[in-house]
Write a sequence for this structure.
């Protein structure tokens, strides 16, 4: 990474240069392969007060250039705020790259084959079972089952192949539909 530090209307002391360089070095943790980083510090006097402007220009390969401008009355505060904004921009780009993983055509074909194999395996395991509900039952058998189980009702098919419901009434007796 090429680092360029420039001061306009401002002399960059060793401490300022060291702070700027350390700030730029902190951006390496995002692994975005920064080609070059230019830091331009300018000063201007407005209404008798001195204001500092920091501009970070980060060139990234195959992506847009990130430009961050920050104004403040304190030079070090302007550098720190600009650094935070640059980190936020790089974090967004990094997260976008990591989260939006492109899946290749071969990987999709492999997934489709896996799904088909699982479906074929499941077909082999299906065993048709006749439910007890459709077997003809006597009302007395259902009544004894209902008393033993504590259920409120039982649905069954009687010997005449009619669907019937045997239920417990509120008065403790049993009803039959």
């Amino acid at each position: 990474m090429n680092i360029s530090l420039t001061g306009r209307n401002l002399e960059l002391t060793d401490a300022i240069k060291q702070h700027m360089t350390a700030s730029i070095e902190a951006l390496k943790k995002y692994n975005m392969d920064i080609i070059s980083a230019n830091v331009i510090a300018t000063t201007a006097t407005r209404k008798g007060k001195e204001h500092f402007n920091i501009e970070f220009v980060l060139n990234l390969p195959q992506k847009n250039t990130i430009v961050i401008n920050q104004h403040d009355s304190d030079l070090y505060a302007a550098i720190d705020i600009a650094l935070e904004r640059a980190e936020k921009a790089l974090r967004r780009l990094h997260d976008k790259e990591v989260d939006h993983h492109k899946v290749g055509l071969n990987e999709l074909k492999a997934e489709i084959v896996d799904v088909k194999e699982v479906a074929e395996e499941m077909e082999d395991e299906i065993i048709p079972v006749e439910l007890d509900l459709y077997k003809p039952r006597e009302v007395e058998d259902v009544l004894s089952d209902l008393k033993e189980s504590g259920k409120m009702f039982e649905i069954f098919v009687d010997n005449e192949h009619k669907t019937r419901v045997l239920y417990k009434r509120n008065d403790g007796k049993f009803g039959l539909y």
